[in-house]
Amino acid sequence: MLRISLISDGKAGDLVQLRGIADALAQKAPCEITSHVVTPRALYALLMPYGPPDPRDSACISAPWPDIAIGSGRRAVASLRALKKRHPQTFIAFLKDPRFARDE
């Protein structure tokens, strides 16, 4: 079973896009889809997308590791980067301009 993790800051437009992609993947193969909403505190939010993720949002970057992580929204960038660093086998997709390391 394919594990898919959706990471966003909870904006409706981001959630709809993430859910649409996850549902399309689920039609092709059995999937376990998990949604995570990151809510960084003020200092961490100011540093986004360049800074570290808020430790309070660590649930989305811990085991069980997803096979695919899809993110949207600049506050999700730090969590996706941390997830890729902790578990390099996870395929990362970001739906908008991350404003950080565009070549990765």
Give your account of this protein's structure:
The chain is an alpha/beta fold. It is built from three helices and four strands; from the N terminus they run E-H-E-H-E-H-E. The protein has a four-stranded parallel sheet, sandwiched between helices. The longest helix is centred in the first third of the chain and has 17 residues, at 12-28.
Strand order of the largest sheet: 2-1-3-4
Assembly context of the chains: single chain
Major β-sheet profile: 4 strands, parallel
Number of strands: 4
Strand content: 15-25%
- Which outline best applies? globular
**Overall average residue pLDDT:** 90
Low-confidence stretches: none
Q: Tell me the structural class.
A: alpha/beta
Number of helices: 3
- SSE order: EHEHEHE
Instruction: Round the Cα radius of gyration to an integer and report it.
Output: 13 Å
Cα end-to-end separation:
27 Å
| Helix fraction bin | 25-40%
Question: Can you give keywords for this protein?
Answer:
single chain; 104 residues; alpha/beta; four-stranded parallel beta sheet; 22% strand; globular
